User: Fold this.
Amino acid sequence: MLKKVAILANGGDVSGFNAVIRAIVKTAENHNIECYGYIDGYNGLLKNDYVLLSTAGNGDAKGILAKGGSIIGSSTNSNVFNYKIKNEDGTIEYKDLSDVCIQNIKEAGFDCIFTLGGDGTQKSARDFATKGVNVIGVPKTIDNDVACTEITFGYNTAVSVAMEAIDRLHTTGETHHRIMVLEVMGRYAGWIALESAIAGGADVALIPEIPYDINKVATKIENRKKRGKEFSIVVVAEGAKPINGDITIMGKRDNGAGVDNTKLGGVGQVVAKQLEELTGLEARNTTLGYMQRGGSPTAFDRVLSTKYGVKAMQLALEGKFGTLAVIKNGKLDYALLEDVVGNNKQIGAVSGNTEESNIRKVTMDNDLIITARNIGINLGD
Ligand code: F6P
Assistant:
């Protein structure tokens, strides 16, 4: 019998966090289960900082379906299994504080913890499950790269924002006969770039999975010019890299130990400059950045997030812990957290941002690749 459960939202924010929280709370309330929320992801779990979530009266979880961000915050640097501690003398050390978290869960009397997040978040969730905590994950990330599910919440909103940007770049690009480059997010997977390029009618999409040859991109643009089209739209994923080259790095971020702390960015600018030189056309870059993560979710993401929240609570009611709510063959389902973040390469996943993790990348037989190629979108190869 479940009596008390808690939600934590972790990792970079996405549109749809609140819609998932609302759905879990509502389903819990329908089963007379109290639902709480940890503040700022795993940091809240460590600091024992949580609030009651309710859709009744002036409850926090009321009226949040359309709201961006997360009403309980989220953390991008709170790996409690390898937690960064700054000592008084300024030295830094890393400690496994997971037992403190487990003690906190026991004292609070939570029967299940819902972990809303991407592969890093679910890796910690898997580790808590291994230590006997009842955990259920919900797959989040705008990059759409969580293994074992066909779609993550937040992704569709990011694609829609990118599509609108492409629409706007089209009119300005056409007016001034320019190459308009749009840099979108996507560290290891090019889903956002590829899908928004199709949705927005772009001419080129460069993704991390296909190292690009800039000369081939220039040829595509020149061929368009020969046919009287003196402007082109190029969508570039932040993690795209040239053949025999490296990803473009902006600097470092501090997202904790065991994760990739490179801050990506700048490839759009590089590509724009090279295309200008190669084609003689003027080129401009726009970097979409965090616009893709903020704001209200699309109708699709509101529904997907609600479905995921309900499924997660159902899994808890069925006692199916150590799992992730997923979409498989278009339907709600679940996968073992071990398959999601473990070293299981049988599931079509490829190595991700930690040595052990699985990331769902775009594969060359994916419908989006086939569609893009058939309508003449150049993929840089
Ligand atoms: O993983 C989602 C993502 O938005 C990536 O596309 C991007 O590289 C990264 O997060 C940025 O994260 P941060 O919030 O640490 O800047």
Observations:
- Confidence is low (pLDDT under 50) at residues 346-356.
